[in-house]
Amino acid sequence: MKRILWLFILILIAVPVFAADADEDDSSAVGDSSAGAADDLAAAGPKIDPLIDIRNWLGRAGAPTLEKNQQKPLKALYDKELKGLAKSFQERFGVPLRSAIAAQSMPTGKRGRVAKPNPELAAEVRRISNLLSDKLIATLRMDQQVPLRKYQSELVRGKRMELMKQTMAAAGASLSAQQETEIDAVYAHESYLRTLAIIEAGSESYEKTLILLTSQTTQRVALVLDRSQRSVLSAGNTPKVPQQNR
Predict the structure, then answer these.
(1) pLDDT band at 114 (very low <50, low <70, confident <90, very high)
(2) What is the pTM of this model?
């Protein structure tokens, strides 16, 4: 049965997805956090639709849309997971978790009164939002999950390639056309493996796997570069890999 499932996944991955725009901002709608904005929303009883991001991702990936019978279980799972994280979050930041997520999901101009941004709170809300999103996506059908994860991985691939070119150009060590082609092929292979790894992880963490995969990819990319370009790479001037979630 497991062999049949993986064959199904491989077939789906082999089907091209829509072209990814490397300049598109597909990260979660989170920004500078404000305890004041969260407090304002808490008083108003903020509403969160946990399925908005998933619907958007499915649409961008050209995957089957959510069916009505999928929505209630997904919302119930979200509420259960959110409740389990809420107490420790509020003890740490003094702000209800649901309110903080709602505050950072709103456009900047609608977040209520201005307060000093709290980067630590913003980072934690982003981490939790990604965690919750992963748990929901892991429950989707494979014909939804695979194209969605492939699309996300292809976005990362495009952004990594663009960052590599910009970094090398800024250091006066621009890539040749042949190098760009070879490096893009390396990133394409990484994208394929990343998609498989994330799907296989299900709702569990895949961070360590992606770190190892990125390290291996960097080593392969280095083989394509000349000495001066490898110096740029080894000096740590290549930006961090973009986040693929939300």
Answers:
(1) very low
(2) 0.75
